[in-house]
Design brief:
Chain lengths: ~260, ~190
């Protein structure tokens, strides 16, 4: 039978000047873990929204007419594998783990199996990402990074890269200036090069609006130093937006150019 | 007379009431100490702390930690589960600090509990006879610390699955899996001899 320790323990408490930690401290601590879990799910959903945008904004998926052009470069499976935005999926995985860690340290978090918590966090991220993409969050983040963070271009093989092959007749970028009367527009591509684009003999896809600030996809040929003759123009619309019912014929694109017009 | 009033106080109030009373007056904590010192000391020993002085020091630290964290006690939880959780964390942390693992379980005091393990785990030898308490003890001692913890809580502390879940802070499903795994290990150790 153990002896009564209550007296010595109370004395020790007295000696150490120990007092119960205030309740607000624990409330704040739990709130901190909830905040960590929720903010990680939100950050994960932003990563997923961007991943979805990068993968869906992919011309080889919908525009079957272009497929041969892309397949000439590499096989479809390699194209799909390269198009998976691994960096965003890794970011999603990381924040899902952080969300799990945060949730696990909430009051009742330990009662839930790891797989259920991780599946729940992923599902919440997925649902939120759909919401985020309706307000173009994924697109805005991706576009900002592709234009401003050089290293990001190396981490993601995006549609912007497909439209940065002027030697193959594909030019994409942002309209800087539109001279309607001269049938000319000035466009900055995703490598920050400025192009003068002649649109006098161009087939413009239905529903395409041209104005400064608008992102366009242009097929055509290089005609000189930083000069491009456009054959077709279409807007850089979201792939999951309703596409125009009338599909234009795809203009012939030259894949080889005379030596004199090559731009290095 | 004083002893009698202490005794009455110890059994008059529920754990939750004693927590509330302690937060108003720390002298009420004495009743919590008296209520839990024996079971917690047994638990410390069963988890493998065989040195009496170390066990007493651990017990004191557990109660002081309990007192300091009283405001963190969630009344939806059984107080016994909560104090066992503190005890468990403190014991494991002490093992880590001392860099020594648990020592073999004591057979003398827990003799009848080894028999209970034999009954509950249906540990029948190949010749149809029941395994001896000594054999069970040897098998339990060979278990890894985590398996041993769940076996101690389930069969020696006689805790339910939900209580073990609250003490070890793992899902109930994991508790069941760990007990089954530990049971298989015990059986295989017994078969090995």
């Amino acid at each position: 039978m153990p002896k009564d320790h209550s007296k010595s323990i109370l004395e020790e408490i007295e000696k150490r000047n120990a007092v119960p930690i205030p309740r607000w401290h624990f409330v704040l601590q739990r709130l901190g873990f909830w905040l960590l879990a929720v903010s990680s799910v939100v950050t994960g959903s932003i990563a997923m929204a961007t991943a979805i945008y990068v993968f869906i904004d992919n011309d080889f998926i919908e525009d079957h007419e272009y497929i041969n052009l892309f397949l000439a470069e590499r096989p479809l499976i390699a194209e799909i594998v390269a198009s998976i935005p691994y960096i965003w999926l890794a970011t999603l995985a990381l924040f899902t783990l952080v969300a799990y860690f945060g949730f696990r340290h909430t009051k009742k978090g330990y009662q839930y199996a790891t797989t259920r918590v991780i599946a729940g966090a992923l599902l919440a991220s997925l649902l939120l990402s759909v919401g985020f993409n309706t307000i173009d969050v994924g697109k805005s983040i991706h576009r900002y990074l592709i234009e401003n963070v050089h290293v990001y271009n190396k981490l993601v093989y995006a549609n912007e890269h497909r439209w940065t092959h002027t030697e193959k007749g594909l030019l994409g970028g942002k309209v800087i200036q539109y001279l309607k009367d001269k049938h000319l527009l000035v466009l900055r591509d995703f490598n920050k090069s400025i192009w003068q684009v002649d649109i006098s003999k161009t087939e413009v896809r239905p529903g395409t609006h041209i104005f400064p600030g608008k992102y366009l996809k242009i097929t055509g040929v290089i005609t000189g130093k930083q000069a491009f003759q456009a054959l077709t123009i279409q807007g850089w619309s979201k792939r999951y937006h309703k596409r125009p019912l009338v599909q234009p014929k795809i203009a012939p694109v030259k894949t080889t150019l005379p030596d004199t017009t090559l731009v290095h | 007379m004083v002893e009698t009033s202490r005794h009455q106080e110890q059994f008059k109030y529920t754990d939750q009431e004693l927590v509330t009373k302690t937060l108003a007056n720390k002298q009420a904590f004495a009743a919590i100490v008296r209520r839990y010192e024996a079971p917690l000391l047994r638990y410390i020993t069963r988890l493998g702390c065989r040195d009496s002085a170390t066990a007493q020091d651990l017990l004191q630290e557990i109660f002081i930690k309990t007192y300091i964290h009283l405001n963190d006690y969630d009344h939806s939880l059984q107080f016994s589960s909560w104090i066992y959780r503190i005890a468990h964390n403190e014991i494991i942390s002490s093992f880590r600090k001392e860099k020594n693992g648990p020592t073999p379980l004591e057979r003398e005091g827990d003799f009848f509990l080894f028999d209970k393990v034999v009954d509950e785990l249906d540990l029948t030898a190949q010749n149809g006879e029941m395994h001896t308490a000594a054999a069970i003890q040897a098998a339990v001692d060979r278990l890894d610390p985590k398996s041993r913890e769940v076996i101690v809580l389930k069969f020696f502390e006689e805790k339910r699955y939900d209580e073990i879940s609250d003490i070890l802070q793992i899902p109930q499903g994991t508790v069941a899996t760990m007990i089954n795994r530990a049971k298989k290990k015990i059986k295989s150790y017994l078969e090995e001899g």
